[in-house]
Specification:
alpha/beta, Alpha-Beta Plaits, Rossmann fold, 3 domains, 9-stranded mixed sheet, 16 helices
């Protein structure tokens, strides 16, 4: 592909990603993968260059652009070397017209910027949400130890007990050690969140929103397979991925429970009031993961945020019913918005008597309300909010 053809390919992909954002369709990474499957002639350098252009545009444009061309014109306003590539050639983009407008450059839509500001996320802290993320792994202590494991590349030791960091793009999933379950990809903040849960051998621990089970596997390793682990979710496809992951990791999960939305308590009846610890890793906007999925801010609107906060209250209420007296409820979102963090804990404590917040025992993050928030700017991690709630005996 010529440089101009790469720009045109990025424009075509951005058109698809913009449509997906508006209509809640497929995410950017899936659309990019499908695009190149249909264009086998594009080499690895071409794919890498086009992908880079696409994500430069996504990171740069705060609002959903009108179209892919306006998004790439925004990139060209920041990188003058791209302007001559709008050359009208056979496979390149049309020449830039006299009144053409580039897309709006910014961090996020105005309404979302107000939410960030109200949450104390401004200036460089807001800009850091769209930076480049490293790739972190957790050494699986059921099979290996950080001090002795030998990997194809040497990673940076992080503060979490089993964390290693590698440059973005490191092909960890191609490593034999990954295929054999010695390491799992998991952000440094996420590893600390699992440490904060404080699960111990002999306890009953419920991962209420387990998804594909990344945190479930971390809890299994943390307890040396000594806890009774119950992994639950409403997504059958994602929950179905847990069994093969657990087998690869050597992790013991006693029960996987598929939940039906709005009638979750029926499936959870055997554990009501019996859990020592419940982890609620609640569905959220993912504002803390924009470094990895920057089009997430294009896909979020005020109605969706309201729906998510109501869902977070709902799963918190369910989680509270599962905890036995003296037990702990951990609430986590990969969001930096107070609507999905401190505000949810305040609302929970107003609804539920006999509960109190406790200190989150991790060395990273800053206090936010009655919990702790980690952020890319201050902690060089994904953005997370975590709070611990204790039920009195």
């Amino acid at each position: 592909m010529t440089p101009a053809a790469r720009v045109q390919a990025a424009i075509e992909l951005l058109d698809q990603i913009i449509e997906g954002a508006r209509n809640k369709g497929a995410p950017a990474d899936r659309l990019i993968s499908a695009y190149f499957k249909q264009r086998r002639y594009a080499g690895s350098k071409d794919r890498r260059a086009v992908r880079d252009l696409v994500y430069r545009a996504i990171r740069l444009c705060g609002e959903v652009p009108y179209d892919g061309r306006s998004a790439m014109l925004a990139v060209a306003t920041e990188d003058a070397s791209l302007v001559p590539l709008f050359d009208g050639s056979e496979h390149g983009p049309a020449k830039i017209g006299g009144g053409e407008m580039a897309a709006f450059i910014g961090t996020a839509p105005d309404w979302l910027m107000e939410k960030l500001k109200a949450s104390g996320i401004t200036g460089k802290e807001a800009e850091a949400l769209l930076g480049r993320a490293s790739l972190d792994v957790r050494v699986n202590t059921l099979k290996a130890a950080r001090d002795t494991i030998e990997l194809p590349e040497e990673g940076e030791r992080l503060a979490a007990p089993n964390a290693l960091r590698f440059p973005s793009g490191t092909q960890v999933e191609q490593w034999r050690e990954y295929r054999d379950g010695l390491v799992e990809i998991q952000d440094h903040a996420s590893q600390w969140v699992c440490e904060a849960v404080g699960a111990k051998a002999g306890e009953t621990v419920i991962d209420l929103c387990a998804g594909a089970g990344g945190k479930t596997l971390a809890l299994a390793a943390q307890t040396g397979n000594g806890a009774s682990l119950i992994a639950c979710d409403t997504d059958k496809r994602r929950l179905g991925n847990l069994a093969p992951r657990a087998a690869r990791a050597g992790a013991q999960v006693d029960h996987t429970v598929l939940l039906n939305p709005k009638v979750e308590r029926e499936a959870l009846a055997p554990w009501i009031g019996k859990a020592d610890r419940v982890l609620v890793d609640a569905p959220c906007s993912g504002s803390g993961t924009w470094r990895r999925q920057p089009e997430g801010r294009w896909r979020l609107d005020q109605a969706e945020l309201k729906r998510l906060t109501q869902l977070q209250d709902h799963v918190l209420d369910i989680g509270a019913e599962l905890v036995k007296p003296g037990g702990t409820l951990a609430f986590v979102t990969c969001s930096v918005l107070d609507d999905e963090g401190a505000n949810r804990i305040e609302a929970f404590l107003e609804r539920h008597k006999g509960w109190s917040s406790t200190k989150v025992p991790i060395p990273l993050g800053k206090a936010r309300g009655q919990g702790t928030r980690l952020s890319p700017f201050h902690d060089d991690t994904d953005g997370f909010f975590v709070a611990l709630l204790a039920l009195e005996c």
